[in-house]
Structure formats: structure tokens, C-alpha cells
Specification:
This protein is an alpha/beta fold. It is built from 31 helices and 36 strands.
């Protein structure tokens, strides 16, 4: 060694260019060795030198990686792997302040004391080492370098408010992962850098950060060791760390080493705290900014003059004390602990009887405990390796292959891959040792392949877990305030800058459901900004779309295809609902107005088409007086009104007014006043929506399926919903109101007091079974008595030739509506009503008893029809089923005289039948005034007395002393006029 070789200590804070200066000085010499604290930094420096001098003259040597070209001139190594005795022109050691590190300090101290270049030796580090270096290396010269940028303390800040290009530092794997996950949700993702990562994984993560794919870095204190990153702010999530034995607070100089990563080159940086870390004391923060720290007067040391005569001699030499007060004997390291554990093994002791064997044992004990399982497990592995090497001279290929194959798997999560990567680092280190394997090149390659494969898989898992590329890209473009390109495909899927962000449903954007709440906000902000032009294009297409592409739902929604674009809202005019559009605000007022106009046009045309009879009637100026008022009520009730609700108004209408209303299609039924054209499915569906809007319902009743005569009564339905649906509730089922009127016509021909059975036509017209019909009749106010009898065969019957036949003939000559139309009774209640309509509940509930006396406005000829006379049959009479007697097997001549041929015979088939009678008490009226009588007064009137009393034929009689009431003229517009005239002439 040249005694005139220069030894220089280049000291100063971070970002002073010390490492760059050392590289330049080494390349100024023919040969050189530089030692770096981390293999990550070693790889970075190696790449920089290779870029200048090429790979043929640059070597990289770390514990797990060895690249040594034949013509190597420059060696880039970790401090532990620096080769000794090579006689290089230049020797440099970076981060020399690590001489005080409890774990590795003795290695740096050894390099400080013993490593020298032939021409130049350079130590780079903190200015806190000036006194110690001057004392231990008296010939050293000092070169102070100032920081090229300012470092400022910015206090505490939430992670959610962290600005881009920030590094958040944690001191445990769990802490790093938790922070990275939080940043992914709120900021789009972060790169992860830890000392335990392989160089390949670390470089991939750093490249992702440096290239701007993510704006945040989450790391351990590994970034404090010279890694050159584009970081503007460093935030500490904790101010203490576990040093291998205990949790301890970080010293100010340690914090400064990490905080100094902020601001590279001439760019200023800031540092602070985040998360649960308490704010820094003013003194600590000031010391970091001014780079003023307590000098390091003590450094770790371990004897380098080792004695390999025996295991005990080796241990003794390793634990030898120092003669210099500045050199503190290092605490027991992992290699010494492993040596002591193996030294207690009898077999190992028997093998180590000479110097080479002890030296080999020591080399094996220096294998790092990458796995970190336990000291016992690590010692057991070292024992196997030593025995193989000592007994065979190398590690068996088959055993080594099995060890590597066990961990050659890329499945599993981040933790599983990290463990396998730690395991393979052991074999990577072993294969780098010269002479330990039969084929060094092969096994180094095998270990490297597995490590690279696991490294790539780990990088992929880290990226999948901690990076949302979509949110990251969108945030970056938002920050750049550039116009983003959005694309919407035929299904409405939206991509911004090539990233899927959600769907455009109508004129509202729905962010991807897979995103979290914080991500959704970012995605929506970016997407809406990019979608502004798309909204205008879609609005133009919607405005020109035909009505067939637009529809309303039964809950009042307005749909364009499958997308909701608005909803109907109530206004003062029931037939002119308002529109509330579903359009994102970012679309702008022009798009909102265009969508609203188009929907308003649609619903106006829909109402005009489906409610045309109502609108025509509303505009008919020839309707005056009571007729016009009644028409107004029909419009307010959408063309369907329970008769009980307007009983007085109906009575007040004269025949001219009714005729004028009938011309608009109004039918005056016994139960309901309605317009048959509005009972069709389409108008019914719209009527329910408009009615529900006017009622202010939160949930609208749905329209019944088309084509059904009766439907089950919906429990909990709002009052009046059955009427608006075109039905009337009766028991557990509801019957369509036009079919109910036809059924009423049939029931008028029956003896409701003496009792009658259901005819086949009644069951057919109501579309019910006998049991359902019985329930329906009970809902209409009848009593249904169930019975059984022998089932008889049908026999032919002869239609009696009486007045009823003449009435039917007369009715047949009238203009009868088509069967598909709702055939109703005459305008006012006939002489024998099914029930008292005037006493019904307005909401369409169960009615009171029928009024035996016809209302005042019923024509006299209709009122004069006898009780047992059949009402005019409007429909074509149904075929009467044949009735045949159930004939007994017994011959007629053997029957006992007087025995009925229809008597019950054993084993005859029985049938169920119902007898229906009117169940409600009749409403009494005064004979002279037609007004209801008080409770308990004797019955009066034509039908109010006891059945069969006062008349031979069992008919009720009218004992009124007043002269007969003057008959009203028969309305020529009445569809039953001809039948009524025929009945009148037959009196």
C-alpha cells in the first residue's frame, strides 16, 4: 500500500452528491472498489457505471448476486461483500456513519480501519463522523459538501391530503401494507419499497413510481440509504422502530437520513409526520433542517484477527475486547450466535479439528438468516450444509434441487411470495460461494431464475393490491388539467384514457361498482369532465328518437330503452303531469332543457292518444249545465267513477244531458259510470300512474294483467285503486267493472229473495269456479248457502211462452252492443236492482241493501215490471243445459207408487251447489215521499213487505194512498228503448 495514498472523508447531509462524486473519482482510476450499504443501492450504482463503461469491465457482488466479467476493472459491492487484498487503485465506502449501527456497524468500522485504495480512499457519510474518523484515521482529509436544496419541516398532514410525489415511511411490513392500501383507495395507488425485496422487485416498483404510474411511495427506512428518487415530501408514519431486540425511538440523525430523500438536485423538499405519529419537537425539526446533530463518538467494532485453531479459539477471538475507547465491542451478531449453537454439537466439534474445517464452519455460519424463522431452525440448516461440505466437499445436487424446487411456486398472496423469496435468497447466497456446488454456473442460474420468477410475481401482487391504475391515471390527468378523451360504446360502457370507469345510463354516469367510495369520487370527477361532449351528442340523438323508444313505467319513471331518463311529477292538471329529468349537472342546462322538452312532448302525446275520449269531451262546448259539470268530474276521475260516489249528480241529470254524455262514450252502469274505451290495458296503465301522482303515493299500484275478468284483491292497496284498475272489489277477488254490469243484468232476472242458483253463463262471464263465484257474490252482498244433492244429467227444457218471452223478443229487436263491449243496465237502477247502489260506500266497498222502490227518475214502465218478471235480456240467451233425470236401475213397474223417479239412489254421484239470496236489510222509504224511514218502522212500498204477504202470488203490494205517479217518457237514446216499449205495451 502506498503510504502517500490519499484518504478523504466527504461528509455532509443528504442530497449533496457524495455518491455521484465517489463514482466519478473511481472512474478516474484504472481500477476501483466501492462498497454500498444496500444491495438495492449497489444495483443502482452498478447500472450507472455500466451505462458509462459497459458491462464487460464492471462487476456486481452482493450476498445474493455475483456478476464478475473476466476483465473486471470496477467492483460494485455491498460493504460485507467487498473483496480484500485486491490492490485496487480506488476504494470507497458509502454511508460510513453506519459504523454506529448495532447490527452491521462492526463491518463498516472494519472497512474504515482496514480498507485502502492504492491511490485513493474515499469515505462518504454524515458530518457526525468527523471526530471519530479524525481519531481513528489520522491521515484522513475532510471535504464538506453542502446540501444542494433546502429541506423544510411542514408539520402533520393526513394521508388523504398528501400531495403527489410523496414518500410515506413505515418501520414494519404491516405498517407499510396498511398505508399502501389506504393510498390505493384514496389516491389511486402507491409503489412499495422495502429492504427485504429482491432488486428485481424493488426496481420494478421504483420504476413504476419514477415513470409516474403512481404518485406515492410507501417504504421502510431502506430509502434513507442513498436511493435516488424523485421525492418532494417525506412523511413519517411512526417515530420509533424495532431494532431487532426492542422498540426504540429514532435519533434525529436517523430521521434526517430518511427525510433527506425529499428534494433531489436543486429541487427543495419537505418532511413531516402523518397517521398516528406525533408532531416533531421544534428542536428535532430544527436540527434536521440545519443538519446539526450530536457527533458519533462511539462505533461498533469486532476483532478482525480471527484464530481458526478450534471453535473455542474462534469464538474467543471474535469476542476479544477493543483497546480503543471509541471502539465498542459489537453485540452478539447472528453469525456468532450460530457458531456457538453449532459448537455445542458433538458431531460438528468432532469434524472441526483443524484450521480449514473451523474456517469452513465460520463461512457457513455467516450465511444470513434471510428466512427469519428461528435461531434453532437456522442453525439446523447450517448444520446440514456444513456436514455436506465437510464430508463431500460440495452440496449434493439432488438435495439442492429439492430445496429450490420446493419454493419454485408463484401462487399465493404477497406474504406467501415474500416468504418464498426470503427462502430462495438463502440458496442464492449459497450458490454464490465459490466451491460450494458442483456446477456453480448452473446452480447460480437456477437460483436466479427462481428468484426472478418470484420477484416478478411479487411485483405483480403488490401492484394488484396497492395500485389502481385507473384511478391513478385519471388523477394524474386531472392534475395536469388536460382534456381527457372519453369513449362510450353501444352498451353505455365508458372508458377514459383507455381505462374503464363505469357506464352511462341515459344521461347519468354510474361509476364502476368495483371501486371504493374514495375511488368512486375520483372516477366520477374525471369521467364527467371527459363526458361533457358525449352528453350533447346523446341529447341530440334522444331528442330525435321516435316515441316507440320511450316509455313510462308503472311507478311513473320515464325510460329511454333500458335507461331511466326522468320521472313524472304531479301538477294541478291531472292530465298534464310535469317532468323531472335524470341528467348529471355536468351535462349543462342546454342538455337538461332538451331532455325535458322531449319527455314533455312524449307524455303529452301519450295522454292525448290514450285519453282521447276524455279530452274530446273536455273540449266539447255543447255540454252545458249539469252535463258539463258531470263531464268535469269524469275528467278528474280519469273516466271511471263509482256510481255511489256521484249518485245525486246522476239523479239530477235529465235525459238530454245523459244523451249528450253517452255520445262521448259514457256508460251509466248500476255500479260504475265509465268509458269502456278507457278500460283497455294501455289507458288503465296510464290512469293508475296519473291517479297515483295526484294522490301523492310513494308506491304506485300496478295494473292488473290484461284479459282477466277477476283478480285477487291486493291487500294493503290504497282506497280507489281497484276502480282505477277497472275492477271492483268483491270479497277476496275483484271483478272487472264492465263484466260486473253484465253480471248484474243476469242477476236482475233471478229471485234474489226466494233464492237462486248460479247459471253457467254467470260462471262463464265472471271467469270463476263455483266456489270463487260464491265468494264473489258474498262480496256483492248476497248470502251463499252451500248444499249437496245427487248429480243429475241435463235434460231438455222448453222455454215458457209468457210475457217474459215477449219481452225477450222485444229486446232482441233492439240495437244490442257487441259481446266484447260492457253491456250495462238502463241508466237508472231498474225495478229489481241487484243491490242499493245509492247506499254504497264511495270508495267502492261493500254496498247496502237494494232499494225496493225505484228512484224517482226511473221510467214508470220500468218500475212497473213485476217482481218475478224477468228483466229485459240484452245479450243473446245462452244455450240452456239439458236436464236429464237420474234414472234408477229399478224398473218402473217395480217402483212403489208415489216414488219419484228422481229419488236418491245409493252410490249416486253427489254435487255441490249454492243458493244465493240477498243478505242485506232493505232500505225503507216513506210511501208518500220516497224518503228512508226511521229504524224499526214497518215496511212500506211495493217490495218492502214480507215476501208473499198481501198478494195471492206472494208479491209485495203498494198500499200508497197517493195517485199513481206519472210515467216518464222513455229516452229514445236508451239502448233498451225498444224492449221497454214492448214491455209497456204488454201490461
Amino acid at each position: 500500500m502506498d503510504t502517500h495514498a490519499r484518504v478523504t472523508a466527504v461528509l455532509g447531509p443528504t442530497n449533496t452528491g457524495k455518491t455521484t462524486y465517489a463514482i466519478e473519482r473511481m472512474l478516474g482510476h484504472r481500477t476501483g472498489i466501492i462498497g454500498l450499504p444496500l444491495r438495492l443501492l449497489a444495483r443502482e450504482v452498478y447500472d450507472r457505471i455500466v451505462a458509462v463503461r459497459g458491462p464487460s469491465v464492471v462487476a456486481l457482488v452482493t450476498g445474493e448476486e455475483r456478476i464478475v466479467p473476466p476483465r473486471t476493472q470496477y467492483w460494485v459491492c455491498t460493504v460485507e461483500a467487498m473483496p480484500e487484498g485486491m490492490g485496487a487503485d480506488f476504494v470507497g465506502v458509502d454511508e460510513i456513519q453506519l459504523c454506529a449501527d448495532p447490527e452491521r456497524g462492526h463491518v463498516f468500522t472494519d472497512r474504515l480501519l482496514r480498507m485502502r485504495g492504492l491511490h485513493e480512499t474515499l469515505f462518504m457519510g454524515s458530518d457526525t463522523m468527523r471526530g471519530t474518523i479524525a481519531a481513528l484515521v489520522p491521515q484522513a482529509q475532510f471535504l464538506k459538501r453542502e446540501r444542494m436544496s433546502e429541506l423544510t419541516y411542514s408539520g402533520a398532514k393526513k394521508i388523504s391530503r398528501m400531495r403527489p410525489r410523496s414518500a410515506i415511511v413505515g418501520f414494519s411490513v404491516e405498517n407499510v401494507y396498511a398505508i399502501a392500501e389506504l393510498i390505493r383507495r384514496q389516491k389511486g395507488g402507491a409503489a412499495v419499497v422495502m429492504g427485504a425485496l429482491s432488486p428485481r422487485t424493488r426496481n420494478a416498483q421504483v420504476d413504476m413510481y419514477q415513470n409516474g404510474e403512481v404518485d406515492f411511495l410507501v417504504a421502510t427506512d431502506a430509502i434513507g440509504m442513498g436511493l435516488n428518487l424523485d421525492v418532494d415530501h417525506v412523511a413519517f408514519s411512526s417515530l420509533s422502530k424495532f431494532d431487532g431486540r426492542r422498540m426504540r425511538p429514532l435519533a434525529p440523525n436517523e430521521l434526517a437520513q430518511i427525510a433527506g430523500r425529499a428534494g433531489r438536485g436543486m429541487k427543495n423538499g419537505t418532511f413531516g409526520v402523518t397517521g398516528d405519529a406525533r408532531p416533531l419537537d421544534d428542536g428535532v425539526a430544527r436540527a434536521i433542517m440545519d443538519h446539526q446533530f450530536t457527533p458519533q463518538n462511539k462505533v461498533q467494532w469486532r476483532n478482525h484477527a480471527l484464530q481458526f485453531g478450534s471453535i473455542d479459539r474462534l469464538i474467543m477471538s471474535l469476542e476479544a475486547p477493543s483497546t480503543d475507547e471509541r471502539l465498542v465491542r459489537a453485540r452478539e451478531a447472528d453469525d456468532l450466535r450460530a457458531l456457538k449453537a453449532l459448537g455445542d454439537d458433538a458431531e460438528i466439534t468432532a469434524r472441526c479439528t483443524d484450521g480449514p474445517s473451523v474456517r469452513l464452519l465460520w463461512d457457513v455460519c455467516r450465511i444470513p438468516d434471510f428466512r427469519g424463522i428461528s435461531h434453532a431452525e437456522h442453525a439446523s440448516l447450517l448444520e446440514m450444509i456444513f456436514n455436506y461440505l465437510h464430508q463431500r466437499g460440495s452440496i449434493p445436487d439432488d438435495w439442492l434441487a429439492r430445496q429450490i424446487k420446493r419454493i419454485d411456486r408463484t401462487d399465493g398472496d404477497i406474504d406467501a411470495l415474500s416468504k418464498r423469496l426470503a427462502f430462495v435468497r438463502t440458496w442464492t447466497y449459497v450458490t454464490q460461494r465459490k466451491g460450494w456446488t458442483n456446477d456453480e454456473t448452473h446452480w447460480r442460474g437456477e437460483a436466479r431464475i427462481v428468484e426472478d420468477r418470484l420477484s416478478d410475481a411479487l411485483h405483480e401482487r403488490l401492484t394488484q393490491r396497492f395500485v389502481d391504475r385507473r384511478t391513478s391515471v385519471l388523477l394524474r390527468r386531472l392534475g395536469q388539467k388536460e382534456a381527457m378523451v372519453a369513449d362510450v360504446n353501444e352498451t353505455g360502457e365508458v372508458t377514459v384514457e383507455g381505462e374503464f370507469v363505469g357506464k352511462l345510463e341515459g344521461f347519468r354516469f354510474r361509476a364502476d361498482k368495483g371501486a371504493g367510495s374514495a375511488e368512486t369520487k375520483t372516477i366520477k370527477s374525471a369521467a364527467l369532465q371527459a363526458l361533457a361532449p358525449q352528453f350533447h351528442l346523446r341529447a341530440d340523438r334522444f331528442y330525435n328518437a321516435p316515441d316507440t323508444e320511450i316509455d313510462f313505467t308503472e311507478q311513473g319513471g320515464l325510460m329511454w330503452g333500458e335507461a331511466a331518463v326522468g320521472k313524472l311529477v304531479a301538477t294541478q292538471d291531472a292530465l298534464k303531469p310535469g317532468i323531472e329529468v335524470f341528467v348529471d349537472d355536468i351535462a349543462g342546462p342546454e342538455v337538461i332543457q332538451k331532455v325535458q322538452r322531449r319527455l314533455q312532448h312524449f307524455i303529452e302525446r301519450k295522454v292525448a292518444a290514450l285519453f282521447e275520449p276524455l279530452i274530446v269531451m273536455q273540449k266539447d262546448e255543447t255540454l252545458t249545465g249539469l252535463a258539463r259539470g258531470f263531464a268535469f268530474q269524469m275528467v278528474e276521475n280519469f273516466g271511471v267513477i263509482p256510481r255511489a260516489q256521484v249518485a245525486d249528480e246522476v239523479k239530477a241529470l235529465d235525459q238530454d244531458a245523459r244523451g249528450a254524455l253517452r255520445k262521448h262514450g259514457i256508460r251509466f252502469g248500476q255500479f260504475t259510470i265509465f268509458m269502456p274505451l278507457l278500460l283497455k290495458p294501455a289507458p288503465t296503465r296510464l290512469r293508475l300512474v296519473l291517479w297515483s301522482l295526484q294522490k301523492g303515493l310513494s308506491e304506485f299500484p300496478e295494473s292488473p294483467p290484461p284479459g282477466l275478468v277477476t283478480i285477487p284483491v291486493e291487500a294493503g292497496a290504497p282506497a280507489g285503486a281497484d276502480t282505477m284498475s277497472g275492477y271492483r272489489n268483491a270479497g277476496t277477488r275483484a271483478i272487472r267493472i264492465d263484466m260486473l254490469e253484465r253480471l248484474a243484468d243476469m242477476l236482475r232476472a233471478e229471485d234474489s229473495r226466494g233464492g237462486f242458483e248460479a247459471k253457467a253463463d254467470m260462471l262463464s262471464i265472471s271467469g270463476t269456479t263455483l266456489e270463487q263465484f260464491a265468494d264473489l257474490m258474498e262480496g256483492l252482498g248476497y248470502r251463499a248457502e252451500k248444499g249437496e244433492r245427487v248429480k243429475v244429467k241435463a235434460a231438455d227444457t222448453v222455454m215458457p211462452h209468457d210475457g217474459t218471452e215477449q219481452a225477450m223478443d222485444a229486446a232482441a229487436d233492439t240495437d244490442v252492443p257487441e259481446k266484447s263491449e260492457a253491456v250495462t243496465a238502463p241508466d237508472d237502477a231498474p225495478d229489481k236492482p241487484v243491490m242499493d247502489v245509492a247506499a254504497e260506500q264511495p270508495a267502492g266497498g261493500v254496498t247496502e241493501a237494494a232499494d225496493p222502490t225505484p228512484p224517482a227518475d226511473v221510467p214508470e214502465d220500468v218500475a212497473a215490471i213485476p217482481d218475478d218478471g224477468a228483466a229485459p235480456i240484452i245479450e243473446e240467451p245462452a244455450e240452456t243445459p239439458e236436464v236429464e233425470a237420474a234414472i234408477s236401475d229399478t224398473p218402473a213397474e217395480e217402483l212403489t207408487p208415489g216414488t219419484e223417479p228422481y229419488a236418491e239412489v245409493a252410490d249416486q254421484e253427489m254435487e255441490v251447489f249454492y243458493t244465493f239470496t240477498w243478505a242485506r236489510a232493505p232500505r225503507r222509504q216513506n210511501a208518500d215521499r220516497g224518503a228512508p224511514r226511521g229504524k224499526g218502522k214497518p215496511p212500506r212500498g211495493k217490495k218492502g213487505g214480507k215476501p208473499g204477504g198481501g198478494d195471492k202470488g206472494g208479491k209485495a203490494q203498494n198500499f200508497s194512498s197517493k195517485p199513481p205517479r206519472k210515467e216518464k217518457a222513455i229516452d229514445p237514446d236508451n239502448p233498451f228503448a225498444a224492449a221497454l216499449m214492448g214491455l209497456k205495451s204488454d201490461k
